[in-house]
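Technical annex, item 7. During the second reporting period the consortium partners agreed on a shared format for inverse folding records so that results from different sites could be compared directly. Each record opens with the tokenized structure and is followed by the designed sequence. A conforming record, contributed by the partner at site C, is shown below for reference.
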């Protein structure tokens, strides 16, 4: 068995790691650019299981457990300092109470905070405009580059082959099987199992085997500041009641990252910078944490969330092909789902089904049957 993984982002690497742990030794990871070239190196570095869909809650909870195991196995760095979901309106507290009860039912220990308690978790919070908060203590953040490189070096030491600056341009098929992968450096054949974890490139590649992959590129406009003394205590502070759920996090190097989901041109090009982004993004957060107005902005950039119609990833087999699998469409949650992605895709390849049954709700087939899933806890 030879497994070809297309995409050297966090999810592709975790698929390789899980397969290797289960005894698969012929693994090749192919990447059009460089390690983590897509969203894996350009994100806030945060993780959580405080979502609103059962699929997200169960899978993210498992992924956090696996991240903690990998912390020990691979000497990774991560810190569970929590997510602080801020409510400006009293009626939002009632929504938070229902969400917390839902989370608690499935083992995620979120809890409701009073204004005073929220201020204890985040000193300097403008309590005059806060009605309360929802706190997720199991959420956290990590240094993205360091952890991705550690995982990559481990895989290299185990014998996993990486082919960078190599684009898979086409998959060839016969009798409902993928027979080869045509790359910019030649053709790869054999007893193949193909995992497409190529982020934005997934749609284009699956089109070569007449499979429609329903993702769109949603523009995001993150902002980072100069390094500052530690001031943001939770992993992430989210302004729930402001449209677009603006947030702030502080990196291990001291820079503050601000982001907000701002309505933009459909699949806008990466050169479409907007002069209004800084005010729209930072102003609501400064209202909540006024001391941040003294921090200097360093830069702002444009990136994409590869987003599915229901904001959930696509996992599992790609029908009608017997040896083709996909792990993409993470809708901004790819980093946090990395370990559980590896677990599930390895399950499908080796056992024919996932060990966490609810993952079967996330196959590509749901877009044909109309069984989409709702998620409202979308931030930045």
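Designed sequence (site C submission):
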């Amino acid at each position: 068995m030879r497994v070809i993984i297309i995409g050297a982002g966090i999810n592709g690497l975790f698929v390789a790691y899980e397969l290797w742990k289960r005894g698969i030794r012929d693994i090749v990871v192919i990447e059009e650019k460089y390690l983590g070239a897509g969203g894996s190196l350009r994100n806030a570095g945060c993780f959580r299981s405080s979502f609103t869909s059962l699929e997200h809650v169960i899978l993210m909870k498992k992924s956090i457990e696996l991240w903690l195991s990998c912390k020990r196995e691979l000497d990774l760095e991560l810190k569970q300092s929590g997510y602080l979901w801020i409510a400006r309106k009293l009626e939002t507290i009632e929504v938070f109470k229902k969400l917390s009860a839902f989370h608690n039912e499935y083992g995620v220990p979120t809890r409701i905070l009073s204004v005073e308690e929220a201020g204890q978790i985040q000193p300097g919070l403008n309590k005059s405009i806060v009605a309360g908060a929802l706190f997720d203590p199991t959420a956290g953040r990590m240094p993205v580059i360091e952890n991705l490189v550690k995982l990559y070096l481990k895989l290299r030491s185990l014998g996993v082959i990486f082919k960078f600056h190599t684009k898979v341009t086409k998959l060839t098929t016969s009798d409902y099987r993928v027979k080869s992968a045509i790359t910019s450096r030649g053709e790869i054949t054999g007893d193949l199992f193909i995992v497409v974890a190529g982020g934005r490139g997934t749609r284009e590649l699956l089109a070569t085997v007449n499979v429609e992959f329903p993702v769109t590129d949603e523009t995001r406009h993150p902002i980072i500041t100069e390094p500052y003394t530690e001031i943001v205590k939770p992993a992430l502070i989210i302004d729930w009641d402001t449209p677009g759920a603006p947030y702030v996090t502080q990196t291990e190097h001291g820079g503050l990252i601000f982001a907000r989901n701002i309505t933009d041109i459909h699949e806008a090009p990466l050169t479409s910078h907007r002069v209004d982004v800084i005010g729209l993004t930072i102003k609501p957060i400064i209202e909540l944490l006024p001391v941040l107005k003294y921090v200097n902005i360093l830069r702002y950039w444009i990136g994409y969330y590869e987003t599915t119609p229901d904001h959930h990833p696509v996992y599992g087999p790609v029908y009608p092909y017997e040896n083709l699998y996909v792990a993409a469409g993470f809708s901004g949650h790819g980093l946090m789902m990395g370990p559980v992605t590896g677990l599930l895709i390895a399950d499908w390849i080796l056992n024919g089904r996932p060990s966490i049954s609810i993952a079967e709700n996330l196959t590509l087939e749901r877009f044909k049957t109309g069984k989409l899933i709702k998620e409202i806890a979308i931030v930045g």
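The radius of gyration is 21 Å. The chain has two domains: 2-45+145-215+309-369, 80-138+226-305. All partners now use this format for quarterly exchanges.
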